[in-house]
Write a structure and sequence with these properties.
This protein has 205 residues and is of the alpha/beta class. It has one domain (5-204): Flavodoxin domain (Rossmann fold), CATH 3.40.50.360. The protein has seven helices and seven strands. α1 (19-35) packs across α6. This is FMN reductase. Residues 6-155 form the NADPH-dependent FMN reductase-like domain. It comes from Kitasatospora arboriphila. Keywords: Flavoprotein, FMN, Oxidoreductase.
């Protein structure tokens, strides 16, 4: 039996409740729906709001704390990624960028990624194409064609049916199609070399 795929959604929302987290949850739900009957999927959400200080500490010291390490390992082990940021100053948030700055540079190579963003007005939607998509292209991820932007009016009456809902379904379907034929990543941890063996190798050198 094929092991379930691991889908990780990274949300950089700062408020509680957060429209950024809401969008991440809806996108994950769309991927799960699109994979029904094809593959099982396990969804994990990484909230960056609670990791702001550990991320800053890592940028200064070069060492992640246990909470940040667990989040980074989850993203590194993901078969697919949903990345959602609020738009600040016409770009991704500093918290969002900082998290991916401390991620291993090879971690997302070949990983299917769905990008999304939230903002007060649709005028900020271009941030997905001029900032977020190039970031994941630099990390050598495989970014799905449809990026999803949710403005404030998209959450109001009628906004979802007219635009946001179909965009979420389309983007979720694109990510699901990339994941459907993908073998799950190995879930084994790093190889542990006994200390005696390491010491013997040093003496031999």
């Amino acid at each position: 039996m094929t092991a379930p795929l691991k889908l990780v959604a990274v949300s950089a929302g700062l408020s509680v409740p957060s429209s950024t987290r809401l969008l991440a949850d809806r996108l994950a739900g769309a991927v799960r729906t699109a994979l029904e009957g094809r593959r099982e999927v396990e969804v994990e959400v990484v909230e960056l709001r609670g990791l702001a200080r550990p991320i800053a500490d890592h940028l200064v010291t070069g060492f992640p704390g246990p909470e940040l390490r667990a989040a980074l390992e989850s993203v590194e082990a993901a078969d697919g990624l949903i990345a959602v940021t609020p738009v600040f100053s016409a770009s991704y948030s500093g918290l969002f960028k900082s998290f991916f700055d401390v991620l291993d540079r090879e971690a997302l190579t070949g990983t299917p990624v769905l990008i999304a963003a939230t903002g007060g007005t649709a005028r900020h939607s271009l941030a997905l194409e001029h900032a977020v998509r190039p970031l994941f292209a630099h990390l050598r991820a495989v970014v799905v064609p449809t990026a999803v932007f949710a403005a404030s009016e998209d959450w109001g009456p009628g906004g979802d049916a007219e635009g946001l809902g179909p965009r979420i379904a389309r983007a979720g379907g694109e990510l699901a199609d990339l994941l459907a034929g993908r073998p799950p990543r190995p879930r084994t941890g790093p190889e542990v070399v006994p200390f005696e063996q390491q010491l013997a190798a040093l003496r031999a050198g």
